[in-house]
Design a protein that fits this description.
mainly alpha; 2 domains
């Protein structure tokens, strides 16, 4: 899925009445996402090399680790 309305409909159908737990993700989806989930050519890995940064999380729009679950 890549449409905001599809995600909201699916979450509601699964019984999620409070969508605030998904607000960060849904806000990003509201602006539009490419079909099939993203840029398949590895944009982050390209940027790591181009910018010569030590960690891919520094060039990722929504980096995740043990201590960061929301942007």
């Amino acid at each position: 899925m890549h449409r905001h309305a599809d995600y909201v409909r699916t979450l509601t159908a699964r019984g999620e009445s409070d969508l605030s737990a998904y607000s960060v993700y849904l806000d990003a989806m509201r602006s539009g996402m490419p079909p099939r989930g993203g840029f398949a050519f590895g944009l982050e890995r390209f940027l790591v090399r181009l910018l010569d940064v030590p960690n891919i999380r520094q060039v990722t729009i929504f980096p995740r680790d043990l201590h960061r679950l929301a942007p």
